[in-house]
Amino acid sequence: MGVLSDQCAAMLESSSWIRRMFETGMELKKQHGADKVSDFSLGNPDLPPPPEVAGGLRELEANLNRPFSFGYMPNCGFDWALRRLAAYLSEEQGVKLEEGDLMLGCGAAGCMNAFLKAVLNPGDEILCIAPYFVEYGAYVSNHGGVLRPVPAKQADFSPDLPALEKAFGPKTRGIIINSPNNPTGQIYSKDDLAALAELLRRKSREYKRPIFLLSDEPYRFLAYDGAEVPAVLPLYEYAVVLGSFSKSLSLPGERIGYLALAPHMPDKALLRSGAITANRTLGFVNPPLVGQYLLKHALGKHVDLNVYAARREVMTQTLTAAGYEFIKPRGAFYFFPKAPGGNDTEFVRRLAEELVLAVPGSGFGMPGFFRLAFCVSEAEISRALDGLKRARAHFA
Ligand SMILES: Cc1ncc(COP(=O)(O)O)c(C=O)c1O
Question: What does the alpha-carbon distance between residue 137 and residue 146 come to, in Å, rounded to a whole number?
Answer without folding.
Answer: 7
